[in-house]
Amino acid sequence: MAQEITSITQIPGIYAGHCTDAAAGTGVTVIVCPTGASGGVDVRGGAPATRETDLLRPEETVSVLHAVVLSGGSAYGLSAPCGVAEELERRGLGLDVGVGVVPIVSGACLFDLSVGDAKVRPTSVDGIEATMEALDNPDVPLTRGNVGAGTGASVGKIAGPERSMKSGLGEDVQCSGDLVCGAVAAVNAVGDILDPETHEPIAGVLDEAGRLAATSAELLCSAQASMPLSRQNTTISCVVTNAKLTKAEATKVAQMCSDAYAHAISPTHTTNDGDAIFVMATGEVDSMVDAVGALATCALERAIADAARSARSAYGLKAACDL
């Protein structure tokens, strides 16, 4: 039953997996719908690194989305979706174009070059590995924390890297009757991560004594921060639902889900973030678009909080579990 679903991999037709390079501090997370989902996207950040977002616009003719790739490596990480497409083609999965198939693969990258090894970035091989893990291990719950696209993620960077904290990759699933909305988020925000219910900080900028005290918004507004990590931050997410949605409706759900960033990240959508949210709808359950958006927003804000709570200290950065 829907109420028993705790991971997006339990949603029929959805597969997900990672490729993680802990030594280099980077990785790839892929969410696959082999039969094709209705897709939408909302990009709010000021410095995005994305692939095939224009194709998801409602007026464009391609109506299916086979995979969403969340990757580290900044713009270099856009090589990973190429590997995902290659592996899907090898398995005969994609849009039939008469002479073969073309998998429709969208994706976004976050900046993790400041931790681990800046010279090592996700490649097409990593995309292939993540896709193989996803498709060859069905129904296995997605691992969270310092894995995949969240391997090198960090938050609270407004006062510099020495006062930032480790973040990671989070997940949450919300159900209402037969409707299921799940979210995966790789959280690499310049701001702080807040509990969406209590609004208490989970992770963020540390004070000079290494305590979670000052807030990024306060530092920014009082001009105590100079935003030293320009364009080196991004929260990238994928929402998966079993609802029946058109591309236009999936786009509206993605726009509604941007509220989750405002609920769980402060400040958010800055000029130094490349925030993006993808939506994949498998089309099994009739539901009001607004209901899908509201439930998906709840799942995404909890996934963002989970990314901070699931992270473990690494690369010299404290995690929420250390405080």
Describe the protein's architecture and organization.
Strands 1, 2, 3, 4, 7, 10, 11, 14 and 16 form a 9-stranded mixed sheet that branches. The protein contains 5 helices and 16 strands. It is α+β, with helices and mostly antiparallel strands and 323 residues long. The mean pLDDT is 92. Helix content is 22%, strand content 29%. The chain has one domain (2-322): L-amino peptidase D-ALA esterase/amidase (4-Layer Sandwich).
Question: What distinguishing features does this structure have?
Answer:
single chain, globular, L-amino peptidase D-ALA esterase/amidase, 16 strands, 323 residues, alpha+beta, three-stranded antiparallel sheet
Work out the helix count.
5
- Which CATH architecture would you pick? 4-Layer Sandwich
Overall number of structural domains: 1
Q: What separation lies between the terminal Cα atoms?
A: 37 Å
- CATH homologous superfamily classification: L-amino peptidase D-ALA esterase/amidase
- Please tell me what the overall shape is: globular
Structural class category: alpha+beta
> Beta-strand percentage?
25-35%
**CATH level 1 name:** Alpha Beta
Radius of gyration, taken over Cα atoms and rounded to an integer in Å: 18 Å
Helix content: 10-25%
